[in-house]
Amino acid sequence: MGKIFGTDGIRCIVNTEPLTAETTLKISKTVGFLLKSKQSNNSRVIICKDTRLSGYLYEPIITAGFISMGMEVILVGPLPTPAVPHLMRTLRADIGVMITASHNTYEYNGIKFFNLDGFKISSKLEKEIENIVLNNKKYSTILNNNNNTGKAIRLKDASGRYSEFLKSTLDKKIKIKKLKIILDCGNGATYEIAPNIFWELGHNVVSINNKPNGKNINYNCGAVNVASLCKKVVEEKADIGFAFDGDGDRLIVVDDKGNEIDGDKIIALFAKNLINEKKINSKFPVITTVMSNLGLENFLLNDLGIKLKRSPVGDINVIEEMKKNKSFLGGEQSGHIILSDFSKTGDGILAALKITEIISIIKESSSSIFDLYDNFPQIKVNISYKKISKKNKQNIKNLNKKYSKEKKIRVLIRFSGTEPLIRLLVEGQDLKVVKQKTKKLESEIRKIIGQ
Question: Which helix H or strand E contains 443, and what residues bound it?
Fold first, then answer.
């Protein structure tokens, strides 16, 4: 085991390194040691989880680690990831923990840590944690010499607190149009809170994939697969459909005609609305990742006069760039939408609520409001592998470097930070050329890794 953290916290197959029971305890104790407030004897930790079965394994282990370091743990049960920084603020917690593997299926789990300010911990701190956990001599110094251990309590009204916060983000001056909405909860953390919020706001709500059993999270549903949502929106003649991923920090929209609307188009809509509200201008760029479509970049610059700045993949990278550039808006094509006026991380329910607000202002159909630009042809291929040598890893990186210099076509080859996958993206104006280049590159990648 040489690395613990990936592009979004820790993530792997359940009961494998770095998330065996033993290593998970080490990680928890180390994080407690490094982030515990030195000014308070009552340092608090918020621990949240999604609906996957292994949450029952990791919740008590992580809790025990923090308690052993003399910290007070508040357990809030299954809630979306963006609830964590909000609850940290209202409960004056020093550390936030989300037990989730986000969009992955139930065989995976992971941990996301939040610092005192409610942001995901930095890569610098992640490396510091790794250096201690992976070094027995350093780890042996992680001690609580005080005889007093901490304690754990379970907060019963956490869902209500977060729900009220979400509803408070809506502009009271705007009369919200009552819509027929289909919600695909992905059998994840939004399964209860999302339907309740939209119903309380007066919408006609139909929910699907809202019966988690610990094993059906993200399984052919939610933000990772909107096929059933597209079908349901058309069948029900709904105004719009919202799909969330397992931990509720992503949103994919389906319009009234059954078309999938990805994170790029959602960002475009918010950018246009913020321009109209005079909240952003050319000084504050929109932040997305290297995955975002060139169509979005052209729309922002040519139609709105806003620059797009790209970060590496991962919402933590987007958020860091947003902080540097004082940006109000950022996100990923995959559906992370960060509205910095309201949240410090991607929030699927928040983004969905603000879309209903925009529909109420514009008074047009969802298919109309998202008809903002045409995407460039873009093909993505995921190539799985079991093991890969350092030499071949470098060969893949060299291949990306070689083709990233292409002028009429955009190529990105990268290793997933959450799964054993090589991700290939090819984009250009001519679909035929894009297909040809994709086929050629996939063949070269497979040849390098011996497939």
Answer: helix 431-448
Question: For residue 411, what are its two tokens?
Answer: 């190529």
Least Cα distance to 83 among 66, 71, 98 occurs for 98
Cβ 78 vs Cβ 189: under 8 Å: yes
CA nearest 26: which of 4, 54, 43, 46? 4
Q: How far apart are CA 213 and CA 4, in angstroms?
A: 28
Question: Does the active-site annotation cover 40?
Answer: no
Measured CA distances, 125 to 46, 65, 132 (Å): 19, 18, 11
Q: How far apart are CA 409 and CA 378, in angstroms?
A: 10
**Neighbouring-strand partners of residue 108:** 13
Cβ atoms of 260 and 350 closer than 8 Å? no
What span, in angstroms and rounded, lies between the C-alpha atoms of 261 and 241? Answer: 10
Tens-level pLDDT at each residue, the chain (451 residues): 668 998 889 999 999 999 999 999 999 999 999 987 665 567 899 999 999 999 999 999 999 999 999 999 999 999 999 999 999 999 999 999 999 999 999 999 999 999 999 999 988 999 999 999 999 999 999 887 777 889 999 999 999 999 999 999 999 999 999 999 999 999 999 999 999 999 999 999 999 999 999 999 999 999 999 999 999 999 999 999 999 999 999 999 999 999 999 999 999 999 999 887 766 666 779 999 999 999 999 999 999 999 999 999 988 899 999 999 999 999 999 999 999 999 989 999 999 999 999 999 999 999 999 999 999 999 999 999 988 898 999 999 999 999 888 878 999 999 987 788 999 999 999 999 999 999 999 999 999 998 7
Q: How far apart are CA 197 and CA 206, in angstroms?
A: 12
Q: What angle do CA 101, 32, 323 make, to 5 degrees?
A: 65
- CB atoms under 10 Å from CB of 148, counted, come to 8
List, in order, residues 6 or more apart from 381 with CB less than 8 Å away.
423, 424, 438, 442
Of 313, 326, 232, 318, which is closest to residue 267 (Cα–Cα)?
318
Q: What is the pTM of this model?
A: 0.93
> Beta strand 329-331 with 251-255: parallel, antiparallel or unpaired?
unpaired
CB 265 within 8 A of CB 337: no
Residues 317, 366: Cα–Cα separation, whole Å = 30
Give the tokens for residue 448. 């390098």
Q: List the catalytic residue out of 28, 43, 102, 343.
A: 102
Report the alpha-carbon distance of residue 168 to residue 341 in Å, rounded: 12
DSSP label at residue 303:
I
Backbone angles phi, psi at 370, to 5 degrees: -95, 0
